[in-house]
User: What shape does this take?
Amino acid sequence: RGLVERGKRLVFVLDELQMLRGIRRDGEVLRELFNFLVRVTKEGHLSHVICATSDCLFVEEVYNNARLEGRSDYILVDDLDKGSAYEMYDRFGFRERDVVWGYIGGKIGDMVRLYEKRKVGVRECEALEEMLLSERRRVEWLLVKLRRGGYDIKGMLSVLRDVVDGMNDLELVMSRYDEVIFWVKENVLFYEPIRGVVKPQGVLIGRAIREVIRDVL
Assistant: This one.
């Protein structure tokens, strides 16, 4: 409180908050944590709190928590736009900016992956193809798991096709909920819970999805 009285506001950052989901110790840890966070922010005015997570379904769960209604704001940390991405490409030393944009867009994580491959001597275009193949193999392996589980493969893929073709609003989520949620849980699709928008997790996985659909459907 002394820092607040001197005009300094603390910022408490919790990353990958979804790791606390389901943990119980004399009650649910996550619920007790939120009660504490509300006390130090909206009630005590002692600190700001930023909770970060890469699990978009967990975001929806947290945002719809009645205890937090009117006491929290949702901030989407999305991929960079083209101009900002090109600036980052320059910092990473990428030479073929248009080619790189076509493969990974503005996803920082994929930029780091490409940079690490180049550091060990892999040529830029070769590294991009390796990254694409890795994502494609991930989707194909998920299809193997689905087939073994008796799922309708064409039905599951049709959801991905609808998303990459631009059908990505709440209507799709509601009409094909189970299929959408499967792909979201597997980090193939991203669900933005506030607007109800579904899209590929990034340009790279979107490109891999198109290749798989082309060969399977």
Remarks:
- The mean pLDDT is 87.
- The longest helix spans residues 124-148.
- The CA atoms of residues 99 and 178 lie 35 Å apart.
